[in-house]
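Tokens for Maleylpyruvate isomerase. Go.
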Amino acid sequence: MLGRRADGRRRRPCLSAAAVPHYGAGVDLFTRSWTALRTAVAEIPDPDFARPSGCAGWLVRDLVCHLVIDAQDVLITLATPAATEPTVDAVTYWHVEDGPPSGEDPLDALTVRLAAAYGDPRLLTFHLDDVGSAAGRAAELADPRARVGTRDEVLTVGDYLGAYVLEWTLHHLDLIAHLPDARTLPPEEGLARSRAMLERIAGAAFPASFTDRDALLVGTGRSAPTDAQRAELRDAAVRFPVFLG
């Protein structure tokens, strides 16, 4: 999960996206990644919400509930302006953990209980569409040069949205990990951007033979490398897996 809000009081003027060079492309990638993920959720048949996801210990419904919390965090962060200089960017925002989630985190446990409380999967998807649409609109309206606070850090809105491209892409892969009939896949540009970010975090490039999807899944410990892939990673001196938090 990405967001935690930090305090901030001063409001900044909201500028037109057209006034900021290259911002349209960045917002477009955030928006397309988020739209594709929400579309993939909407297409899931009700029985498949009880299938496992790519997040260890979480069912699909648990992951979707987590996405609701993510959308709330986007709204909270975009409404939490900060007046100080940025302390992180889209890459350094990510924390590298010692291992994968243990399931003992209180918020992780709450997510599972909350997901079960929805009962009908349609209630869960409705909540995601409702809050998720608002988060998407807020991202499109935000000034990319404004500074926001989250997780006791400060970063620009542009970097914050960039960090979430990786979040959306990884969780899209998690969502469809055991859903072979899934129709909506992560955008290719989002996969490529997420791979580039992960390579910067890992401090080395994944072998060219790896697809973007393989680099993300193997690089974050979501799938085990083949013997050939393991040898290539060793030759490339790539540290893996990288557990992000």
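Confidence is low (pLDDT under 50) at residues 1-24.
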